[in-house]
Amino acid sequence: MKFLLDLLFRILQLFTEPYFLLFLAAVIIILLKRKNKRKNLRIGIGILAVLLSIFIGNGFLGKLTSAYLQKNYANTQVSKNMASQNPVIVVLGGGVTDIDNIEKPHILSYSRMVTAYQLYYEYRKNNLPCKILISGKGRGQTSEAELFSDSFIKMGASEADIIKEDKSMNTYENAKYSSQILKQIAPSNVYLVTSGFHMKRAVSLFQTFGIHPVPQASDFIDTEITVFPNSYNAAFTFVMLKEIVGIWQVKLYNSLGMNG
């Protein structure tokens, strides 16, 4: 059952890929032409593909998906969350880049590190204990957890306050392996730091494993309404559409008891 559902969602995610949609439209039109189907139908599919491209590229669909994914996290501020006395800040890795055999955190990672450190600093400057749990192995030779740890120490964090979870390869595993560590520590509170567009799915997965974190969105993405479609709008819209498919998958698996 799970195998079939995994396959279904992989297929659904294909529909969040721009090249696949264009390829699909072209294949349908070619097949209809070879079978001498109605010309009007082929034209209609072509027009539909163009309209969909415009709808995605002019930023309108991106605005809708951006609001759905991020609006609940736009007002979170670290300075308002000082009530708990022994928290753990969980920060999710954002990928690793390898340029000329030199590995660096992906561009998304830096806003996450800054947000996590700001929250950590608020506690430490008041002489309150606080830990940072970095979650992510990534696909490089050096784990995201290790790269983040080096950066946090350079910022001024104590090495003793850093916990590295370096096994997870995706958000599901971030939640699974981090929750195991958190249950051993039993902190007073858990803050979750990741990008705004990623937060809804991440929170849902942590809740699946019995952790109810306080969201701290580190960055946000949005599109601009434009007369002419552009690649900026299209790229961010497809990123957010993929995230929505992921949220549907989490909700369905939770309802069927297939997560955890």
Automatic annotation (TrEMBL):
Highest taxon of source: Bacteria
Cellular component terms per the entry's GO annotation: plasma membrane
Entries under Gene3D superfamilies matching the protein: HUPs
Claim: Transmembrane is one of the keywords in the record: yes
Keywords: Membrane, Transmembrane, Transmembrane helix
Gene Ontology biological-process entries: Gram-negative-bacterium-type cell wall biogenesis; peptidoglycan metabolic process
Matches recorded under Pfam families: DUF218
Spans traversing the lipid bilayer: 12-31, 43-61
Protein name per UniProt: YdcF family protein
Species name: Chryseobacterium flavum
Classification of source organism: Bacteria, Pseudomonadati, Bacteroidota, Flavobacteriia, Flavobacteriales
